[in-house]
Amino acid sequence: VAHLDQERAMGGYEAAIEAAPLIASTYDAIATLIGAERDEIALVENATVAWSTAFYALDFSPGDRVITGVAEYASNYLAFLQLAESRGIEIEVCPDDEHGQLDLEALTRMCQRPPKLIAITHVPTNGGLVNPAEAVGRIATQCGALYLLDACQSVGQLPINVDAIRCDFLSVTGRKFLRGPRGTGFLYARRASTHHMHPAVIDLHSSVWTTASSYELAAGAKRFENWESNYAGLIGLGEAVRYAIAVGPDVIEARNLVLAQRLRDGLRSIDAMTVHDKGQRQCAIVTCSHDTVSSVELQRGLRAQAINTSVSLPTSTRLDFEQRQLPELLRLSLHYFNTIDEIDHVVGTVRSLTQAQ
Ligand SMILES: Cc1ncc(COP(=O)(O)O)c(C=O)c1O
Question: Considering the entire predicted model, what is its pTM?
Fold first, then answer.
């Protein structure tokens, strides 16, 4: 907010020059949070831009295989479908195991013929699941596939280390569990494996126009950025990341697990309510549905009590919805600052909304 005031008072360019050290500190904070180098971070508008900037930088040829998971996010899958249509890539979906997470044995078998890319979602939009990202990274390394991890919903609620995960790319939004401003996000691009890649879209920030007929791409992850930025938002993102580091990702995950367990247990105790979460490791996203009261009605009733929730639709993770024949889901995302009393209040409110019917 202070930066917006500065822009209004002195002009956008001038405010950005004055705030240069603060803007630079956002790169450092993110690098610290995920165990990367600062020149491996590109600051962008959101997770979708981060993910697609990485994906469309790959030089796909007809027949190149992309392996993904059942819980893959719609926007990512739409990009697979688009390149299947336009460039003839092949999309292969690794099944889930008996716990509902990516089946690592099946993935190992599928990778006996190495794919070009493994692209999976760490924490899917719905289902409470945390996919085994590190184990997938080991398989990707063994078979020599590139590994793009959608960590949009995991960074900020789980400890993340890109070397432990061994991903080449990691895409993140500012607005979810990092609690940063909307319209901010970042891409991690591993220097060793992505330094030669050519983004689909370039500009005068990601490249230099060197002669009338030539240009050079910027070094490092800067090549995945573009010139114009919402600096107030990016300064806010840096602040949010420092806040998460100060609280501690381990502490955040442990606290969230206690709260989420209480919420899941409470919801399960309500008549005709089903909790749809899966996976051996679960997170702070809790999804459920009621036999007779629709999720939209529940969301509306909760909103009237100042409880914010959302509704997950089949169009967000179509493969998972179809495989499990899920109805529209009520999604309750908690975070470490929530209290036990608040969780109990939510459960009590859902109970009374369903009993009133
Ligand atoms: C798993 C996953 N990936 C990516 C995104 C896209 O994030 P953004 O809208 O910030 O680009 C979402 C948003 O819901 C998501 O759930």
Answer: 0.97
